[in-house]
Structure formats: C-alpha cells, structure tokens
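Appendix C reproduces, verbatim, an entry submitted by the partner laboratory led by Prof. M.T., so that reviewers can inspect both the input and the predicted structure.
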Amino acid sequence: MNNLSLLILGLVLIYIPACLSKTPKCFSQLLKPSYPCCKGKRVFYTDKDGNWGIENGKWCGIDGGVVESCFSLTLGYPCCESCKVLYTDKDGKWGVENRQWCGIKDTCNKPIENEKPAQNTTDVSNIEFDFTFLKMENNKKNMLYSPLSIKYALKMLEEGASGNTYTEINKVIANLNLPKYSSIDKNLSFANGLHIRDIYYNGVVESYINTLKEKYEAEVVKDEFKNAQKVNKWIEDKTLGIIKDMIKDEVVQNPNLAMLIINALAIDMEWDFQFNFDKTYGETFYKDNGKEMTATMMFNKEVASPNVAYYQDDNITALTMNLKEYNGTQLEFMAIMPKENLSAYVENVSKEQISEIDKQLKLSSDEVYGVNVKIPKFKFSYDLELKQDLMNLGIKEAFDDKAANFSKMAKANDLYVSDALHKADIEFTEEGVKAAAVTVIIMMTKGGKLPKETYPVDIIINKPFMFVIRDKNTKDIWFTGTVYEPNSWENDKKEYTPSRGF
C-alpha cells in the first residue's frame, strides 16, 4: 500500500468516527439547550420540533427527525417551517409559528414575494398567548390562571427593561393592547401595584414609576419589608378577600429584595340566569382515567334564555352562560367538553377553534322546548409554574442576575427577576362565580349531533372540560382552565335537600 493510500485510509478512519459521533439520533439533540433521546415511544407533548416524552423526570426527543439548521437554534428558538419573515434584528430573520418566535432556515435564500419591512414589534394574537400556559402545564389536573393578569405584569416589567432583556420579553408579549378595567364595588376588582423597599425607593428611575402610575394606574407602595403582612393585605383587598397569604415572609425579608411588581384581579358575580339550588344532586362524572365519580351536579331544566347558548357536534359540547352586567362590564363563562380526550384538545386549541365555536353558538331561547343544562360545581386553586414557563418561552435574560438589563427601572441597573409567581382561585356555584388571580414579579438586586327540535336539547357536562371566563363584548379572557375532578357529592350533599334530576 503506497503512502497516498495510507493517507486516504487514515483520513477515512478519523473522519468516519467523528461524523458518527456527531450524528444526532433524534431532533432534540440539535436544540439549544439540547435534550436526550427517549428510549421509549410514549408521546407527552408535540410541537414544531417533534414529539416529546418524559423519562427520569426530564424531557426527551422521540422521533428520529432532524431539525433543519437555522441561526435561532443556538438562541433557544426553533426553526420556522415557512420562509415568511416578520421581523429582522442583528441575529437574523424571524417568523412566528404556533404562537412562538422561530428562525428562518438557512435554506430560505430566495426573495419572498410581498415581504414587507418589519416594525420593531410584531403583533402576536392575544388569544394565542391566552392558551399558552394551558398547553405548557397540560398535566391532566384541575388548572386555572389569568392570562390578563400575566399580561399586565409582563407589560409593567417590560416598561423597565432595555437591550436584549426587553427583546426577549417583547417577543413573548409583543405589542399587546391591554383593556382597562375599573373596580366595581364588591363584584369586580382590578389593580396594579409596585411595592418598593423603602430604602431602595430613590434608586428607582422616576420615569418608570410615573409610567406605571399613568399607563397602568399602579399604586406605588413603600414598604420596609419586615414581613409580608402589608403586601399580603394589599393582595387580599384587591382580590375581594379570596387570595390570602400569597407571599411568604422569607421572600420579603431577603435583603436583596428591591421591589414587587403585582397585578391582582378578582370577580364575584352572579349568573344572569341562576341554577335552582334545590335541583343540585349527586350524579356520575366520567374521569379522564376511565374511572367514575359522583359529582355535585347543578341542573336547570328547559332553559330558554338569551343568556345561555350552546353548540354540539361529533367532537365537542360547548356551553356559554352570561354573568350579570355590572356598570357596563359583562363577563361570560364558556365550557368546552371534547367527546374524547381533553388533554389532546388542549394541546391544539386555537383562536380559530374558539372563533368557530362562537359562530356556531345557538341561543337556548331559540329552541322550542329550551335546553336542559347540567354542569358540576367546582372549587380549587392553582399555582402556575410561571418562572419556568416564561423561561421556556424565551424570557431568560430577565432571570439572569448577571445579564438582566432593567436600566429603565433602576438607576444603577442592578435588578433582575428572581421569581415570577401566579396563583388563581375559583368557586363555581349555583349563584355565580368567584374567581381571583395574582401575578407577582419579584425583583432582586443582583446579588354530539343535535337531537330533534321537538325535544329539549340535553347539554350535559359530565367529562373533563376546559373553560374560559371572558368579557362578553371584547372577548378578553380573564380566566381559563380545566376541570378534571369537580366537587364530590359525598362532601357537598349535607348542604342540599335531595330532589330528582332528569
């Protein structure tokens, strides 16, 4: 064998193992950060990258598909499937798909017809943001949060951010136009607050405080933060007494705590058409795991009201019910019960689906014999894993005590977000709905088919369902969530005088 042959053989022996060692077994190894490949094939979540599983308490990739190369992978964002450019910055060209930013692929080197220069921000649909956390924490259990509260808290945080910290936040919330609400006696409460450690107050940029006061009507509170009593009392008052002891003493007693950015909201509203209390009874509810339970089921017979509407097809049953109007503000409740699997429905729920349901809704008053409505009572609270969810959405620098840039908030630019909390509580009864939510951003110093019309239509919510509570006119969503396990009749029946249902 001559020297040339030896050289070629040597190169092949070096090159082949190197290539093999770098060949990804699954798409998730190419992402930044990278994730291991699953040994099994059970799919827990699917996005544009591929199918995901969970093994050993960690996410892992399932399919063998490989993500096509693009600059955004190194920044923690997936590649776009299309080549449509919506925004360009120093990193490259961006698009928006499935409610998240994505990088334009390297192969998209042809000019795109009708491509327009992008503005500083791109408007991502509010309703797509509304369901983001429902998808991210789709764990087949009772869930509740307030998209509106989170939006307000993030917008107030964004007001103080600069540089890449601002860019990351803005890519998630874009240029959201937030509706304004005024508190209404004991029925509706809406408040923004900036609670600042008294000794840090002079370190806050004055224009930031003024912006929060003027744009968000935020209450600015000086607090020694000796304990959490003062801020917890503020939250309790602003949530109509529903949410208590939100913040622990050790949080405010941390000497590095500079301020708390808070949005709090709550409703205590009656139905426009109430349920009959004496008709509530224990009935079967079919749980997601195939088991049954006896739930506390509310019932109204032959309802014929413009305040109750419904839609049914082979895949879903939907029900909307108006809450009373208070000083010009009216909210409505919508339940959507898939015939098969709620978790799978939540994964794919979209603005278009909700809009299509809205178009198909039929008033119960349009039915000759009305509709029979059954729906279970429920009461629960939920703590969203907001910090991790926001980081997964791409807001990372804000939580980095070295890289965070809040120079529009702090004169010394010495702040970062140590945690983001969100708690929500709901009680759904014959009389109406009580619900509240609080978002707290903690700033630290760097340190079926319809029946025949001649019979009443049965609208029976007796399987896991999702719901939204929204403004009747603007459709802004105050609350959304899922109910996998409503109240137990065994626990509630002592409150009722039993009577027959239908």
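The first helix runs from residue 3 to 22. Additional entries are available on request from the coordinating office.
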